[in-house]
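job 3f2a | input accepted
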Amino acid sequence: MYPTEPPFQRIQFYLTAPYDCSYLPGQRSRSQVATPTHLIDPDAYSALIRAGFRRSGQFTYRPHCEACRACVPARVRVAEFVPNRSQRRCEKRNRHLAARFLPLDYREEHFELYRRYQAARHVGGGMDRDDADQYRQFLLSSNVDSVLVEFRDGDTLVMLAVIDQIDDGLSAVYTFFDPAREADSLGVYGVLWQIELAKRLELPYLYLGYWIEASRKMAYKKQYPPLEGLLDGHWQLITQA
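job 3f2a | predicted structure (241 res):
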């Protein structure tokens, strides 16, 4: 299915060559990429997100695998979300953190946290070898309405999140945190914080990327009901609140 809404009139789509899947061992993947990047303005990007696309730097893509439909675009209905007991404990444990909105500027302190996170959580996956230029291209390059949110415990940087705003919600692009603070469940707190931000902005959805039931790294998204998935071209409930 190719998007047909008006913002796509001058946008073209191409398929990448097959590559090893990052989430399911032994699988091969392909992606559908929207081009040219300079034409993907906020209106077009909003429509692409609703059609199941994601952003990595200036590349907007979605999985397009011939024999696999495991990647399901997912979004939280934020107005109906109620944190469970574990999530409430996580919020209480981290509510002292100070959040600050920043432009997508390079800071060495941020990059060092990114490197520590990748070395601890994604060793051998390629991103643990990213240099400063690759970091900039991945997280600090955007043609849409993006912000960097910095979380500090006093003077100590503990987490960063890149978030895009679209016309019907927020898109959680990427979050990384201090791996030494595993017990604080900062990844969970980052999602909860973004849900609350969407509520404050009176936006109906937080887009979380792809839910993959068979992938431990991606199955966690069902913990934020009500969660909708884009299935057969239609958004429908995956999990109830």
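job 3f2a | The chain has a mean pLDDT of 92.
job 3f2a | closed
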